[in-house]
Amino acid sequence: MEKGSTLLFAGTRFNRKRFASIFERFHEQALKVYQPATLCGVCLCNFRLIFWQPKEEGEPREVVPQSFKNSEKKSKKKRKRSGTAPAEVVEGFNVFKTSEASSLTPSLTDDLKQEGSSSSQRKEDVKQIEQAALLRKKYGIHISGYNVPQPLENFSDLSSRFRCKPYLSENLSQLGFKEPTPIQRQAIPVILSGRECFACAPTGSGKTLAFLCPILMKIKPGSKDGIKAVVLCPTRELAAQTVRECKKLTRGRKFKIKLMTKELSRSGDFTKIPCDILVSTPLRLDFAINKRKLDLSRVEYLVLDESDKLFELGFVEQIDSVVKACSNPSIIRSLFSATLPDTVEELARSIMHDAVRVIVGKKNSASQLIKQKLVFAGSEKGKLLALRQSFAESLNPPVLIFVQSKERAKELYKELAFDDIKADVIHADLTQQQREDAVDNFRAGKTWVLIATDVISRGMDFKGVNCVINYDFPESATAYIHRIGRSGRAGRPGEAITLYTEEDKPFLRNIANVMVASGCEVPSWILDLPKLRHKKHRVKRDNISTLPEDNAAEE
Ligand SMILES: Nc1ncnc2c1ncn2[C@@H]1O[C@H](COP(=O)(O)OP(=O)(O)OP(=O)(O)O)[C@@H](O)[C@H]1O
């Protein structure tokens, strides 16, 4: 089968022969026991799996995954890769904690036991399934796919189950990583088992290590075969950060990890430059591919970090070019993000093969570690007053302020420069060096307040950001989740304040829904606001200035 025509969830199958007796019984009782009105998981019926998703309000609806439309054809085909764990019941598209699938799993395993399975291997299989289910439940891990490997119980599983080299275990412990985070528990064994992975986990939950760790365990440093892994990130800052993280993890090993810079993409000859792992933005990598001094045909791992962003219109052609250039038939692709719109799942299905979908917590929700607040500021002038007042009362740096455009970033910076606050600004008009300096100074604590556009809203890991202020209302719920996710990282608490004006009111409900989903209180009138057809919110705002209009114009 052509790679391009494979489906992300192609592996959802039920072994009818093996579970024949259960199936007979279940078939009779299925509709009695699992009433559609209460279903939110998996139901076996009419010789196929039916996935139930609740509609936004009220009744559930039936969704037949696309993989089933082609299941007859696929079942005859041998899979190139296979997992190591025993087959288990899969959760459906709606893979949240309340899923009925979790209650279904024990009944199947009970029946397996009753059948008096002869071999000890079968008993061991059942035990593993139960252990895996318990671990997933404990850590809020939801999976879709077949033969999903056991999650990690701890980092020492990497050595005992996957023969992790001592240097990496040592580096993990040097970095202070005692326990794997939930996404690391599941995504690492999935990728190590040779499966493609489609992962969604909250901001700041360690997704970078989740995709880097298996790559480092599987590829050899200094190989003469060329680039073995490619990581794509939507911004240069994030790409640079990923390189830094990767270098920390490979301390003591001679991995060649390269960041695709402007110079390298224009004039670098990668047939001569030693490189094991290449980290790049799509634009630069596409540019280098077109220069033909880069061979990606032996790449074994391709990661799309912040994958939903990478599937947005501006990137799609470049991603397509990279995916085509990484032509190794046994390549393992992984998609990671904190947000996962349905449209991205659809697109991802067209490029992934036999993938496992891993969701931690609730899909598309903010980190529960962040205290979120909405503050009405009336007008643009009101916002500036509110900000000044809040800084005067208490400023708890580091603070990150998001505005909607580079012009507004410059304006706000000018305003704060009057105050006695160590502020800096980062936006796309700065040179690469200026952007790097702004990030470094903020990281080092030299800057207390960093004013930014969405250029750093995704992926950037500033340790200990105490507060994120959305000076300008975010353009979507997705943007909101990523922006506020710059605080509350790696288990630390954070705070997010979103200022809004009259103009923003119609869009409050989108953000309020995210807040409610992560356990924050929101006034009921906001939740009662009408639903919007167009979810993107881009308004023209008055300039940021405390000067009277005429003076501001003269300036
Ligand atoms: N197992 C671990 N234990 C403790 N800290 C960890 C662990 N894994 C990662 N971290 C730390 O957690 C922080 C956040 O990790 P990372 O940047 O990978 O998050 P992320 O999930 O990619 O976030 P985002 O969605 O914003 O990109 C980093 O500082 C990282 O060093």
Automatic annotation (TrEMBL):
SMART domains: DEXDc, HELICc
The EC number(s) this enzyme carries: 3.6.4.13
Enzyme class: hydrolase
Reactions it catalyzes: ATP + H2O = ADP + phosphate + H(+)
Family: Belongs to the DEAD box helicase family. DDX52/ROK1 subfamily.
This protein's name: RNA helicase
GO process annotations (BP): maturation of SSU-rRNA
Motif (Q motif): 157-185
Chain intervals for the UniProt region annotation (Disordered): 61-85, 106-125
UniProt GO MF annotations: ATP binding; hydrolase activity; RNA binding; RNA helicase activity
DEAD-box RNA helicase Q domain ranges (all copies): 157-185
Top-level taxon of origin: Eukaryota
InterPro entries: DDX52/Rok1_DEADc, DEAD/DEAH_box_helicase_dom, DEAD_box_RNA_helicase, Helicase_ATP-bd, Helicase_C-like, P-loop_NTPase, RNA_helicase_DEAD_Q_motif
Domain Helicase ATP-binding, first and last residues per copy: 188-358
Keyword RNA-binding: yes
Keywords recorded for this protein, A-Z: ATP-binding, Helicase, Hydrolase, Nucleotide-binding, RNA-binding
Organism expressing this protein natively: Rhynchospora breviuscula
Limits of the Helicase C-terminal domain: 386-530
GO cellular component, one term: cytosol
